[in-house]
Amino acid sequence: MILITLGTQRFQMDRVVDEIDFLIENKKLKASEVVLQYGYSRKSKYATNYKLIDEALFDELLNKAEFVICHGGTSSIIKALKASKKVIAVPRMSKFKEHVDDHQIEIVQVLYEKGYIEKVENINELGSIIQLLRNKDYVKYESRGQLAKYIVSHVLNI
Q: What PANTHER family does the entry give (predicted)?
């Protein structure tokens, strides 16, 4: 099963949903294998859809997932990494009206460069990144707080 979580921000990420539907329509993914938490995006035509997911169900789905596709928020990514899941992060972009700024691009880039995740900025690459992810090993995430400190100081400049 593939768990896709687009978060709880009051911004849409319809480009992710549209691409997932495209991949299902073109037999690159099976609808029965895709669970989508769509938040403020549109629903998938094919996947199992949840607007929001309570924590207990999210943890259950996360444990069952082969991998996770999520927006570029640190909470979603780190939760998946802590569960030892492979992650494809699609950063929210202001040019698509998915957020007010592009800080998620920077966060995702740091995690990608450190070898923890895959990233997708051009949504048309999602299908090929899924195939890459299935055959690639990633750096195992170990929570020591250092990554969070690095992101806060170097990416968010706080």
A: GLYCOSYL TRANSFERASE-RELATED (PTHR12867), N-ACETYLGLUCOSAMINYLDIPHOSPHODOLICHOL N-ACETYLGLUCOSAMINYLTRANSFERASE (PTHR12867:SF6)
Tens-digit pLDDT profile for residues 62-71? 999 999 999 9
85-91-94 Cα angle (round to 5): 165
pLDDT confidence of residue 9: 86
Kind plus residue range of the DSSP H or E element containing 83: none
Q: How many domains does the chain have?
A: 1
Range of the domain at 119: 2-155
Least Cα distance to 117 among 98, 93, 141 occurs for 141
Map residue 135 onto helix, strand or coil. coil
- Which domain CATH number covers 126? 3.40.50.2000
Q: Tens digits of per-residue pLDDT, 96-124?
A: 999 999 999 999 999 999 999 999 999 99
The string of pLDDT tens digits covering residues 19-34 is 999 999 999 999 999 9
Q: Give the rounded distance of the alpha carbon of 158 from its chain centre.
A: 24
Q: Are 27 and 43 in contact (CB under 8 A)?
A: no
Distance CA 28, CA 19 (A): 11
Q: Any idea what the Cα angle at residue 93 is, between residues 92 and 95, rounded to 5°?
A: 150
